[in-house]
Every structure is written in structure tokens, then in C-alpha cells.
Amino acid sequence: MPSHRTRKPRAGAPARRASARPLPVIDETSAGGLVIAVRGGRAVTAVIARRNRGGRLEWCLPKGHLEGSETAEEAAVREIAEETGISGRVLRHLATIDYWFAGDDHRVHKIVHHFLLEALGGWLTTDNDPDHEAEEVEWVDLDDVSRRLAYPNERRIVAAAREILVGDG
After folding, report:
1. 5 or 37: which carries more pLDDT confidence?
2. Is the pLDDT of residue 15 over 70?
3. How far apart are CA 90 and CA 56, in angstroms?
4. Which uninterrupted H or E stretch holds 101?
5. To which H or E segment does residue 167 belong?
6. Pairing state of beta strands 136-141 and 107-122?
7. How do beta strands 57-60 and 136-141 pair?
């Protein structure tokens, strides 16, 4: 006769979902980075504030999905212009971040290419952001921006950019 006992999971065993089927994986690629300008003799970068999944406003580097056949560099220039209003020119690749997160019915494997850009013109505005994700935009002193950013990976990217800029100067 079958037993109707409930089995307790072993200590340290991962919890099982009700369905044993793995969630489908969606691959996403984005690009963005630091667009640098000199204001009052100081290096500044444009950062944006957007809502996280919990609805809290967080400061981060501008970035977004690649569209069509554009390269990561082209996407970085376009996304930074859309989210900050600043047009820029890619100087060099800084870093690529690779991470996972889960949605309700899928998992996302995201790769984000970050670049260092020189600001060429424009003025700060979020009006051109087609997704309306960027709610605020500000120039922040490069020496202070890490304290503003919400994500440790982005703080490491700023440190890499500072090292490059100090080394070039």
C-alpha cells in the first residue's frame, strides 16, 4: 500500500517548484556606459534614475537593448542619446557584465556591454527615451558617481573608466 507521508527535504537541498519543468531562457543583449564631459574643469558623467522591479527609483548608467543589426557600440551611442539627451562618440570598451534574473514564466540571461564615450553635444533630457524608463538624468562628478549608483557592477565599471582616464591624463 502506498505511503501518504510528506517527505521533508534534506537540509541544504534546493526547494523544488511545483512543476518540475525548467523555465524557458531568454537571452538579452544590451549596451550603454559612461558618457564623459568636462564641466568647470571636472570630469562628469550623465546618469539616469529608473524604477527597479520593486518600484524604487535607482540611479544607474544609461543602457538598453540592441535593435536590429546594430553593433553594441552603435546601441550604446543610441541608448545614451535617448536616455540622457547627450550625443557621444565611443572611445573604448570598458567591460561586459553577464547576469541572470527570473521573471514570472521565464529566466533571462542578460549580457550588457559598457563603453566609455566622449560627450559631443546635446543637453540633459529624458524626453527622447521611447520606453520612458529614464525618469531623471543628471551630470554627476566622476569622483562622486560611484556613491550614487545602485549596482556594484556599475561601480566597478566607473572605477575602470577612472583608471583609464587618469592613466591617459
Report:
1. 37
2. no
3. 31
4. strand 86-102
5. helix 152-168
6. unpaired
7. unpaired
